[in-house]
Automatic annotation (TrEMBL):
Keywords: Lyase, Nucleotide-binding. It holds the Pfam family PK_Tyr_Ser-Thr. Signal peptide: none annotated. GO terms for molecular function: adenylate cyclase activity; guanylate cyclase activity; nucleotide binding; peptide receptor activity; protein kinase activity. Gene3D superfamilies: Transferase(Phosphotransferase) domain 1 (1.10.510.10). This is Serine-threonine/tyrosine-protein kinase catalytic domain-containing protein. The lineage of its organism: Eukaryota, Metazoa, Ecdysozoa, Nematoda, Chromadorea. One of its GO terms (cellular component) is plasma membrane. Residues 6-71 form the Serine-threonine/tyrosine-protein kinase catalytic domain. The keyword Glycosyltransferase does not apply. It comes from Steinernema carpocapsae. GO terms for biological process: receptor guanylyl cyclase signaling pathway. It comes from the Eukaryota.
């Protein structure tokens, strides 16, 4: 898989994002046929880890935001798949 200029532009944009609510994207490495993304270490673990531990208080706004993000990704994925099949 060859990366395009648009891909590298998106990596630069991701690198510039800086928020306490986001895990910082540090960079991207291509090691022969393997692609590796590097992110800042998150001591709390992944979202999956936090939910699996079950000791997190989840309020209604968090649930709403999480579901909204999941739906947005699903819609984008569907639209990309649908537009590529035309």
């Amino acid at each position: 898989m060859a990366l395009t200029k648009d891909d590298f532009h998106e990596f630069r944009q991701m690198r510039q994002l800086d928020s306490d609510n986001l895990n910082k994207f540090m960079g991207f490495v291509q090691d022969s046929a393997e692609y590796i993304s590097i992110w800042r270490y998150c001591s709390r673990g992944s979202l999956q880890d936090v939910i699996a531990r079950g000791n997190m208080t989840i309020d209604a706004f968090f649930v709403y935001s999480l579901l909204k993000d999941i739906c947005a990704v699903s819609c984008d994925s569907f639209q990309t798949t649908y537009s590529n099949s035309k």
